[in-house]
Structures are given as structure tokens and as C-alpha cells.
Known about the structure:
This protein is an alpha/beta fold. Helices cover 54% and strands 8% of the residues. The strands form 2 sheets. A 7-stranded mixed beta sheet has the order 7-6-5-8-9-11-10, sandwiched between helices. The longest helix is centred in the last third of the chain and has 21 residues, at 620-640.
Amino acid sequence: MATVAEALNLALDHHLSGRLEEARLLYGRILEVDPDNPHALHFAGLLAAQTGAVADGVAMIGKAAALLPLAADIHGNLGKALMALGTTNGAAQAAAAFRRVLALQPDGAGDWFALGGALIEAGDGPAAFRALTRALTASAATDSEPLAEAFERAGLLLYAAADWAGATDAFRKARTLAPQRAEAHRMLGAALAQTGDPKGAVEALTEALRLDPTLAEAQTNLVHLLVTLGRFDEAERAGRRAMALDPGNADAYGNMAPLLEQTLRVAEAMRQCARATRIAPQRAAFHRNRLSLLLHEGRRDEAVAVGREAIRLAPADAEAHLALAVALLASGQLREGWEEFEWRWETRQLDPVHRSFPQPQWTGAENVAGRTILLYAEQGLGDTLQFVRYAPLLAARGARVIVGCSPALVRLMARVNGVTAAIAWGDELPAFDLHIPMMSLPRAFGTDLDSIPAAMPYLRADPADVAAWRARVPADGRTRVGLVWAGSPRTVRGVASPIDRRRSLPLAALAPLADVPGVRFVSLQMGPGAAQLVEAPAGMDIENPMAGVRDFADTAALAETLDLVITVDTSVCHLAGGLGRPTWTLSRADACWRWLGNREANPWYPTMRVFGQDRSGDWSGVVARLRAALTDFVAAHGRAS
């Protein structure tokens, strides 16, 4: 009579030779005689799993593993059988089995790879990435293609969990292991876009398309990124290819809408936005795009309605709330607009300026008497100049007010009534009890159209500086008019550059003003736009004292020597308006929300007059009205003087 060991060897021979039914019967007889034989349980379990009885196989191999806890091969096969169940729970249990294998033999590249695969199926992206990285370092001979695919899958889990850095690392490893895989490059591009690296994302997506020109999604993603970088011609080519490759892809049309808006083709943008919405009516992003287009056309009430629909579809979409905020503010519904505007902190656009303080934020409800409150700048210089008007109101409530701002504003901010100290960002802050970002002040004060604090001036130049600038640019009897024709490109912010192109105009476009007699123009232009002075319009007498300007306190003092400031929508309009100087602001057709659809009289600045475009990109009508108004102003100023 054969021994159990001999029978087991014969059963294993049947098993390995493909005589599976003979092997199954013999394993069964052995287990009838010796039901706790770990080897018979192990091999019988493997056979059961191989022939479709996976749950039975898991039970037998699991029992074998419990009987031989130091047998790495049994734990490894248990993990494989658990994976064959095809369930998330089975994958989690498989990961535990592979971890036991690695506790016994920690340097097995294949075991780390198996653990990574199990963790992917279990939905644990970070742990899968760590395991796969160990697989990669454990053996340089690891098959690159399967490992690359595993890194891709781990990266997808990390991407879905918004772990952009982890996803980027995973996709980079996949690309390095299998540089011929277009999908690895495509997903790396998507992850890099989320980390705020549009240039790197474009490079990765471009390589993906070189490897596989039919990747419609890569073409679609390229459109948004190239628009962000201001590379509009390339963006349009990518967008047209995306639509041709996948005519049923809503994103192919949706991503074209912002591109067309930025290049002033609003009607076509509307059509593409409508196509995207017809394909995917539940996508809040397409409603956000339409909101922006409606604002571009001055249809503010419709924009508000579309914003509400976007939020209905995606109540937690911060970008949708922020878009609605802009529409509400532009339409004069300020109180609700300020509430929605708080969602800006949930978007990524303010990550670089978000301040975390242990002190609480002032909401408007807390008593500030006897307490120190920090007002801090969060966005552009103009925003700081506009909203520091609330500092005197806080001081009137008994607060000690500190302003944290750009170094260029420190001297000017220190002279605002009620401001105790102005501190440049980067310098050490004094002790304070409460803080509030500048653009949350209107909400805290419950500001609406009827309660905008508009007592002018709230900005004050140093009298000594004003006297010094009068001496540098002495009066000659003509009306002195300050000019700013271009904003700052702000290329580091990507999406701000197209807006700057729309709000700026060439100095040459102001040539009709040279015909107005009795005017002496004074340039207040800073930045790249100042280079246009070398080709100033014929007959336009422009003095350029800006080389002597150190900061906004100097610009304020210079503005005080002028009779009128004419400026595009940049920080100077807020400076001149806050000083209470006669200010004419030239505004693009898709006006910033604060100009309330380009109303000529603006409640934020009583001494300001807004000259808005009738049509995007066309400054001729604005300049014609400007010339007529300037002629009248000079005549009236001459009589007054």
C-alpha cells in the first residue's frame, strides 16, 4: 500500500502532466486519510482554483498557510488565488498574503510587484505606488512593460484621489520603464497640469501624440494648456484635431470655448459651448464657460441664471461658485456675490497667496475694539488699493489696523487713515489678534451698492513728495493729463495674460488725443508698455518721469500734480480713484465685475468715469468718445483756472 507521501507525489505528477481529474481524485483520497496535510491542501487548492472553483481553492490554500506559516510559496499562492476572486475584498486579503511573503523574503521583486497589483485592485494607490517602487529597486531585471502598466494603474488611483504629486511620480516611472507607451506620457501630462506645470504637461502630451496621433483626449487636454500659456495658434490646431478625432467628445468642444473667447470670437465660442452642453448637459464646467461668454456680451442676468444652474449640477464645484460670484457682483447683487466669492479659497488659483494663521479670521461679527487686526493683500495691487478703504471703518470700531502688502505699496498704505503699520510680505509681522484677507472685507461689512464706503480720498500722498514732484514736472499752463495704456502681462499666472491683452491698447491707438489743444501728457506707464514711448504718436507731447518713481507712494504724489488721469483697467485707476483725482478708466467689453457692466459712473470711485468698449477688441469708439470728453475737460479746466 502506497504511503501518503508516495500518493502525494503521484497526484502531483498527474497535476503537472495535465491529468487534472486523476490529480483531483487522488488529492481527495489523501485528504480523506489526512485532512490536515498542508501539502495536499496546498496542491488541491491550487487545482481547484485553476479549474474554476476559486473559493474552494482559497479555503484549502488558506488552511495550508495556517498550518505552515513560514512557507512563503503557500502564502504567495494564497494571494494569487485571492486575486482570482476578482473582488476588492479578495484583493485586500491578497495584499495581506503577499505582505506575509515579503516578511519571510523581503527582497523578491516579483513579490513586491504582486503586492502592488493587489493594492491597485484594493484601491490603495499610495501603498501600491510604494510597493511597485520597491519592486523596481529590488531587481533591475524586472519586466518593464507589466511594471510600467502597474505604475500607470497606481497613478490613476492617485490621480483620482487628487494626489497630483504622487500621480506624477507614478506616471514618470511608467514612462521611464516603457517610453514607447503613449498612455504613460498622456497621463503624465494630465498630472503635471494639475500640479501647475503647464509647460511640462504640454511636453508630455506632445510626446504622447507623437507616439499615437489618434489620442483624442491628449489633443483635447492640450487645448486648455496651450490657452493657459497664451499659445493660441497651437491651441486652435490642437482643438480642431481633437474635434476631428472624436466628434462625440464633449470636452473637445468645451475646451474650444475659452480659446475662442480669449481670441474674441465669442459667437463661435457660444456655438462650441452649446455643442458641448448638448452632448453632456450635466457638466457644470460647460455652464461655467457659457457664463463667462454671457458676461463677455454684457448679458449679466442670463449669466447669473447659468451660474445657478452650474451650482445645481455641481453644488461643491468651487469654480462654479466663483463664476457665479463674478456674475452676481457684475450685476450689482453684491451681498450674495460676496458670499459666493468666498469660494475662491477652495480653488487652486489662490494657492500661492493663501495665508494660514493660528489667529481666527474676522467675520464682521466679532468685536474688534482694543484688538489688532491684520488686513492682508491676496491678489493684485489694484485689489489692495481698492479694498484698503475699509481700514478707517475698522479703526472707527476701535481696532488697531495692520496692513500686509506688496513692498511697492508699503509707504502708501502706511498713510491710510486708521492704519497703524504697513508691513511688506516677507518681513516679520507684529503680534495681532485677528486677520482678514482684503477682498473678504466687503462681505464682513455687509456691503451692497448703497453702502459702498466711498468717502474720498482714502489714499493720501505725502505732501513733501507732492512738492518734490511738482518741482520735477513743473506746470506750464496746460492741462496735465496722466496716461496709462497697458497693464502688466503677468505671464507667470498664465490665464491673466489674455485678459491683459484685452484690457490694454497700444499707445498709437491714442493718437487722436494729440489733436486736443492745451494738453500736456505725463506718462504713468510702467512695465513693458513703456517701451512704446519711443514711437509716441506724432504731435503727442508726453513727458516720462517714471524713471524717478520708486513705489506707489511716488506714483500717488505724481498723480496729485495732474489734472486728470486716463488709464486702462490696471492698478493706476484704483490709485487715482482712491486719491479722489478725476480719473477716466478705459474698460474692455467684458468688463471686470467692479465696473458693473461699464456703467459710466461707478459707485466705488465718485471721481471716476468709465469708458467701456462697445465691441471686444475695438478701441476706436472709446478713443473717439475720449477725445470729445477731453476737449470739453480742457475747456472747462481752462475756465476754472
